[in-house]
Each structure stands twice: as C-alpha cells, then as structure tokens.
Amino acid sequence: MLFRSQRRYMCSYNAGSMLLPPQELIALGGILKVLPEVKVQLMDCIADDWDAGQLREALALHKPDLIVSIQGFECFDEDMHQLRAIKQYLPDVMLVLFGHYTTIFAREILEKTPVDIAIKGEPDLIFKDLTEALLQGHSLETVGGIAYKKEGIVYETSGELRIREPDKLPMPAYELLHADKYYEPFMKAPFGLIQSARGC
Questions:
Q1: What percent helix, strand, coil does the chain show, rounded to 5?
Q2: How confident is the model at residue 79 (pLDDT cuts 50, 70, 90)?
Q3: How far apart (Å, rounded) are the C-alpha atoms in residues 154 and 96?
Q4: Is residue 167 packed enough to be buried (19+ CB in 10 Å), middle (13-18) or exposed (0-12)?
Q5: Which of 30, 138, 144, 185 is buried most, with the most CB atoms less than 10 Å from its CB?
Q6: What is the pLDDT of residues 4-22, one digit of tens each?
Q7: pLDDT tens for residues 114-139?
Q8: Alpha carbon 188 to chain centroid distance?
Q9: Residue 111, H or E segment
C-alpha cells in the first residue's frame, strides 16, 4: 500500500519569510515506517513550489492508494478545492484529513467534501490503528477517534483524542524531508526542528 502526504498549513503557507517543516506529517511517517508493506513518501507542494498541474503529474506517476493531508485555517477553502480536484482524477484514492477544524467539524467536512476519513484529535495513535485496520481489511468501526463515509453515510467512532504519553511516540521520519527546502529568518539554512510540546 502506498501512502502519500501533502501539506498546507496556516503559518508556513502565509509567511513569506519562513517555511517550517511539516512536523505533523513526518510524525505520522515515523509511525508508518515500521510497517514493511507500506511505502511512505512526503509530498510538500509548498516547499517544492508545485502548482496544481505538477501535483497531478506526480500523483499520476506514483498512483497512491491513500493520501493524508492536514487542513489549514486561512487556506481551508483552497485545501478542499485541491482535494476535490485530486478525487476527480484519482477517484479510487482514499483521502484522510486531520487538523483542528477536522476534529471539530468532522461530520460536516465528510458530508460536504470528498474526504473519506477524518481523524479527530491528535492523529498519531489513531492513524496507527487506522493504518493497521486498512492493511488487515478490518472494519473502520473498530478504529476509535475517526469519522468515515460508507455508501454515502457518515459514521463516527469514539476514542481517545489526546496522547497521554507523547514520549512513547516513535521518532518522526526526518529522512522524508529535504532540509534545504525549509528556512527561517534567524537561522542559517538548512535547519531542523524538534517538537517538544503539543498545542499552540
């Protein structure tokens, strides 16, 4: 199974003086890299300066089974527009979305967009359970903390939305990043980030 990630997020999307690595996505990459049957690749359209046409060419080349995206705040409409476009030319790809709005408005997002699965809360442990369920062909109702569509109907599961022991999470997949693509006004490039806490 091929997993493909793209990213757009508020601060790094709008601030012209910096572009920070997508910590949330490489954290999910760290969870997936221990699964030998999964090929993980990060696609950061902002860092690569890709337009919609270049994204489409890359997706057509790699033919992913699943795309994981984080939604932004101020660029929410743009994010949904891009996901709609992806679903039009890759109708069989499964779209998974996470983020603050997705947690609060999971049902509404699934009803009004082509997103297939919404992760509610911190995605790390939920995403591990979701991936294993998909790989083993288990029903999504066994995965806690998600909302999903089945035959046009939205279902929601309850589950732990906060990670109680973040120190037990695997190391993020820093190897997915091209460090020279990211920059910050007060440090020389390339540079890296270590996330020491969760939340704003």
A1: 40, 20, 45
A2: confident
A3: 14
A4: exposed
A5: 30
A6: 444 445 554 556 677 888 8
A7: 999 999 988 888 998 999 999 999 99
A8: 28
A9: helix 106-112
What the block records as the tokens of 104 is 């609060």
CA pair distance 83, 6, nearest whole angstrom: 10
The model's pLDDT over 21-32, given as tens digits with 9 standing for 90+, comes to 888 899 999 988
Q: Which CA distances in Å does 11 have to 6, 8, 176?
A: 16, 9, 21
End-to-end C-alpha distance for the chain, whole angstroms: 33
pTM above 0.85, yes or no: yes
Helix H, strand E, coil C: the string for 40-98 is: EEECCCCCCCCCHHHHHHHHHHHCCCEEEEECCCCCHHHHHHHHHHHHHHCCCCEEEEE
